[in-house]
Amino acid sequence: MGVSDGEVAVALDVGGTGMKCALVSADGVVRHAERHPTDAGRGPDAVVETILAVAEGLAGKARADGLTPNALGIVVPGVVDEARGVAVWSANVGFRDVPLRDLAFTRLGLPTALGHDVRAGGLAEARLGAGRDGGHVLFVAIGTGIAAAHVVAGSAATGAHGAAGELGHILVRPDGPACGCGRPGCLEAIASASAVARRYAELVGAASDGGSAQAPAPGRTMVTAADVAARAAAGEQVATRVWREAVEALADGLATGQALFDVETIVLGGGLAQAGAGLFDPLRAALRDRLTFHREPRLVPAVLGDEAGCLGAALLALDQMETP
Ligand SMILES: [Zn+2]
Q1: Is the pLDDT of residue 311 over 50?
Q2: CA torsion sign, 226 to 126 to 159 to 263?
Q3: How many angstroms is it from 159 CA to the middle of ligand 1?
Q4: What is the pLDDT of residue 213?
Q5: Rounded to whole angstroms, what are the CA distances from 3 to 137, 142, 147, 176?
Q6: Which of 12, 163, 196, 256 has its CA 20 to 30 A from that of 108?
């Protein structure tokens, strides 16, 4: 063990709107947590400066509390070259080839790991959360988009170009709606939380001249995926249809994932996974229908919530201390 009792990792999970930050000890215990706005609209240089300032502040807080900050872990969205420590591309933070690991090391003098937010979240769920009893884990985060992390022996595969795990862009419906990536029919164009909400709004709009569903009144906020799940559970016709379409598409995506990875556990995270039995019961059945000789994985909800990415950042930081 390269890590002793009072030592902590400084961990930052940088998102498009906010940063989740923590001091985490080697056993995965959060000793201190704080959150900051990202304000991505200020541009990438300003965001990098905020990341470095927040990390410095956390290291100072650790020392003030009698702890020793011994490593730094930063995770960001998009395409991340973990080996080179470069944030290659991120739509919602505006990064283009930012050598974040070297910048952080220069500023703080701490060994620094740079990782990908969803892969880090999957790492945390696999080692500390819902997947900790299963060696091979596929973590699937379903939110605005859909992304995944394949974790084996406590580490998440990055791919050759830092872009592994893009499960959301598996083609499931060749004639389906356009995806943000430019191609029609991707999984996330049908089964992400935003796709579910959008599809429901479309159908309700189309059905408002005679359908049974109620369109939101002008000025009301759009119905969310969670609302669609609740309305489907209550038996509402349009919601039931949209929800079933999403579940079927998800089952197709997960069946492909299982064919590729043969995992023991699939952990579903992100907002949509909070739909509980309304999601997991039909999804388990639909996935089972699609498996032939493949072994059925355990399908479970994530347990670490939106702290998973930050905990994963800490694990990446601590892991590099363990490496001789
Ligand atoms: Zn796509």
Answers
A1: yes
A2: negative
A3: 18
A4: 44
A5: 26, 34, 32, 50
A6: 163
Q: How far is the CA of 144 from the centre of ligand 1 (A)?
A: 12
Supply φ then ψ for residue 270, to 5 degrees.
Answer: 85, 175
* Ligand 1 centroid, distance to 137 Cα (angstroms): 23
Give the length of the chain: 324
The answer to whether residues 201 and 314 belong to one domain is no
Mean pLDDT of 134-161: 93
pLDDT tens-digit readout, 192-209? 999 999 999 999 985 444
pLDDT in tens, 199-241: 999 999 854 443 344 444 554 567 999 999 999 999 999 999 9
Q: List residues, by chain if needed, whose CB lies under 5 Å from ion ligand 1.
A: 169, 179, 181, 186
Place of tokens 């819902």: 130
Q: DSSP strand E in 90-185: where?
A: 96-98, 112-116, 136-142, 146-152, 155-156
Q: Is residue 1 part of a domain?
A: no
CATH number of the CATH domain containing 94: 3.30.420.40
State in Å: Cα 271 to ligand 1 middle. 19
Regarding whether 167 and 100 lie in a shared domain, the answer is: no
- Per-residue confidence band for 324, with pLDDT thresholds at 50, 70 and 90: low
Q: Where residue 133 falls among pLDDT bands split at 50, 70, 90? A: confident
- The answer on 242 and 163 residing in a single domain is yes
The domain in which residue 203 lies consists of 132-302
Distance 191 CA to ligand 1 centre (A): 12
Q: Please tell me whether residues 263 and 173 are part of one structural domain.
A: yes
Cα–Cα distance, 302 to 138 (Å, whole number): 11
Whether 228 and 312 share a structural domain: no
- The Å distance, Cα 173 to ligand 1 centre, comes to 11
Domains contained in the chain, number: 2
| 48-102 confidence digits (pLDDT tens) | 999 999 999 999 999 999 999 999 999 999 999 999 999 999 888 899 999 999 9
Dist. CA 214–CA 200, nearest whole Å: 11
How far is the centre of ligand 1, averaged over its atoms, from the C-alpha of 118 (Å)?
A: 17
Phi, psi of 224 (to 5 degrees): -90, 170
